[in-house]
Amino acid sequence: MTVDYHIHTLHSDAVLSVEEVLDKAQRQNIQSLAITDHDTVAGIPIAKAHRKPSMEYITGIEITCSEFLFPQRETPLSIHLLGYGFDEADEALNRLLIE
What we know:
Elements: E1 3-7, H1 18-27, E2 32-35, H2 44-50, E3 56-57, E4 60-68, E5 77-84, H3 91-98
């Protein structure tokens, strides 16, 4: 089984829309995937509505847990946590993402 459980879209820091990601995944014969945009579940309803019948879709997210600034670096270093298989409509999760 061909899988990809770490994919970003325009809702995060990538260049493809959710629909474009799903089309590309189908062309590459990905059988199971999760879109794991940074700190947002905005792409999940789109992915569920447009996923290909031959494709398993798992809810996913990449949550920024902490960022560290160092004097010698222009951009911060981040610690991220990947999460899978959750309810994207969960109120507590969505409050956390807003914060």
